[in-house]
Amino acid sequence: MRLPPLLLTRTLFTRPTIHLRRMSSAAAAFGLKEASLIKTQAFIAGQWVDAKSRETISVINPATLEELGTVPEMGLAETKEAIDAAEKALPEWSKTTAKQRHDVLMKFFKLMQEHNDDLSRLITLENGKTLTEAQGENAYSASFLEWFAEEAVRTYGTHIPSPFPNVRNVTIKQPVGVVSILTPWNFPSAMITRKLGAALAAGCTTVIKPPPETPFSCLALVELARRAGVPDGVINVVTTLKNVGEVGKEMCESKIVKKVSFTGSTAVAKLLATMSASTLKKVSIEAGGNAPFIVFDDANIDEAVAGAIICKFRTSGQTCVCANRIYVHSSVYAEFASRLAEKVAAFKIGNGMDKETTHGPLIHTRAVKKVQEHVDDAVALGAQVLLGGKSVPDSSFFNPTILTDVPAEARINREETFGPLAALTKFETEEEVIKLANDTEVGLAGYFFSRDIGRVWRVAEKLEVGMVGCNTGLISQAVIPFGGIKESGLGKEGGPGIEEYLNTKLIVFGGL
Ligand code: SIN
């Protein structure tokens, strides 16, 4: 089956037609302290390599629409080489002790901390989020390495008492083998380490396909992993855009690969899961969300507004766990809306490198178009624009927007907006709002604000999501079981996520 190439990326790379100026040297565009962290080649079997075709992908800074640099446009042949390299490296890496892998991961973690300035700068340059947000992401990203280093040494088996007197049952944990990792652009670093950290800790070897929009963070991380002592072939990176269909297919269908881990849209997740089913591979999927955010009449409104700001507008609304539908009880609706508008009006959109900027651009103009479509659709159905409502012409920026009285049939209520658009709807009863919140095919995260202990339990239990934020708009941490239910995914990452990279083997001892 040949996939439409563009379907395999979470969002599409839109080559801007305006303001595109080629920089004479990539290093000048990045301005890093350590230029050796800028890698413009892919990584296979311990070698930095170009595509066989010599074709490249142009990577654009979404804030300026300037080209940052290029990475190779790889295809099927390079993907097979990467998978072969991971297979060759597996026997040695899987034989290392858990303590050895712990030590390598801790070294990698420390290198990420030491290079915080450069790594954060890379994130801002290729993703657009502010430097403060990028520093937050680098810390979050590194914390997965620390967490999984500590998990590596605790991959205990079990003893299961047998009903038979001369039989003993034990289980041991073993790495699943070669793992394919496919990641999104919204967290160019953290989505790599959340998967890679677990895979390395478990003793697996890997092939990573980073997003074409943000490959440089991934490549810099691989360079640090190499310096930390990860052997050749244990991590391989294949960069691709137009050949993503054949690359993705091989990463899912190869008999050598034993597991696929993907974060991205539900549509792509279904394609990858279908392809992976051909060899009954293990899959971990973190797919789209459409998070409800509920403010009850007994909520602390200041806390609810602060929660909405972080939950809705973090990374300019481009996280899978962002609030997409904000339901507010009618008795506090006007107060919540006006306080939220006051705070959002103070945002300063701009280049994430500027100190005054509070919110950066969207990843590209296609993302801007989608937000505009959601606004226009809701307004056509009767929603009111309280703030914003328009993109900034000829750019990847969208003005932070608040819509009120968004009707149930609006597209926002069915699709992830992935942008800085807060869609407010009034409700009257707990029963009504739970029904509205659960009326979606996905179930990643959900949030609510209430001080009533009975309601807190009832609502937390009734929300059909994998993760609930109760009186908080920020749930993300390395230690939590991150993942959704319904069409939001399969399996958990972070927290207990090392299990997804391990097979449990039963050994029955008889004749004792
Ligand atoms: C995501 O958007 O996929 C991840 C968000 C997070 O880890 O906070």
TrEMBL record:
NCBIfam families: SSADH. GO terms for molecular function: succinate-semialdehyde dehydrogenase (NAD+) activity. It is an enzyme of class 1 (oxidoreductase). Pathway: Amino-acid degradation; 4-aminobutanoate degradation. It holds the Pfam family Aldedh. Keywords: Oxidoreductase. Belongs to the aldehyde dehydrogenase family. Its EC number is 1.2.1.16. It catalyses: succinate semialdehyde + NADP(+) + H2O = succinate + NADPH + 2 H(+); succinate semialdehyde + NAD(+) + H2O = succinate + NADH + 2 H(+). Residues 48-506 form the Aldehyde dehydrogenase domain. GO terms for cellular component: cytoplasm. One of its GO terms (biological process) is gamma-aminobutyric acid catabolic process. The active site is at residue 286. Signal peptide: none annotated. This is Succinate-semialdehyde dehydrogenase. Gene3D superfamilies: Aldehyde Dehydrogenase, Chain A, domain 1, Aldehyde Dehydrogenase, Chain A, domain 2. It comes from Roridomyces roridus.
